[in-house]
From TrEMBL:
One Pfam family it belongs to: Zincin_1
Keyword Iron: no
GO molecular function: metallopeptidase activity
Protein name: Predicted Zn-dependent protease, minimal metalloprotease (MMP)-like domain
Domain of life: Bacteria
Sequence intervals crossing the membrane: none
SUPFAM superfamilies for the chain: Metalloproteases ('zincins'), catalytic domain
One GO BP annotation of this record: proteolysis
Keywords: Hydrolase, Metalloprotease, Protease
Length: 139
């Protein structure tokens, strides 16, 4: 689907499974060297972040959070981290769909890939400022 393609008017909104499939395709398209660094990374899709998470992050509007990385960045890990649960990237379906509808200049595939890559970048140790600089440079 290109940026000019839209979801068919008579189709149901993309489901959790649709967003998950797009996220998995985006992950599979990452370079092998990047995917290899994500062997303990779990990727999931949920409707919205829960209220407790939003409260912890100081976010009032649940539509503001399209994705989240939870874990210890590879650049910060130690041998003690081998005993903790795997790191996790969660994409939030409704906020992603809302941003997609608002922007209208990007395909859903591109937006899901962008959110996924942003969160994977946190896993490998990039900050929001690092990621923003890359986004600015590549746009």
């Amino acid at each position: 689907m290109s940026a000019t393609e839209s979801w068919p008017a008579d189709a149901a909104a993309p489901s959790l499974a649709d967003i998950d499939a797009l996220a998995r395709a985006a992950f599979a398209a990452l370079p092998e060297a990047m995917r290899a660094r994500c062997d303990r990374l779990v990727i999931g899709v949920e409707e919205f972040p829960d209220d407790a998470l939003l409260d912890d992050m100081g976010i009032e509007d649940p539509f503001e959070l399209t994705g989240l990385y939870e874990g210890v960045a590879l650049t910060e890990q130690s041998v003690d981290d081998a005993l903790r649960p795997p790191d996790r990237v969660t994409l939030y379906r409704r906020p992603i769909l809302d941003e997609w509808a608002d922007r209208a200049n990007v395909s859903l595939r591109e937006l899901v890939a962008h959110v996924l890559v942003h969160e994977v970048a946190h896993h490998v140790g990039l900050s929001d400022d690092d990621i923003a600089a890359i986004d600015d440079w590549t746009l």
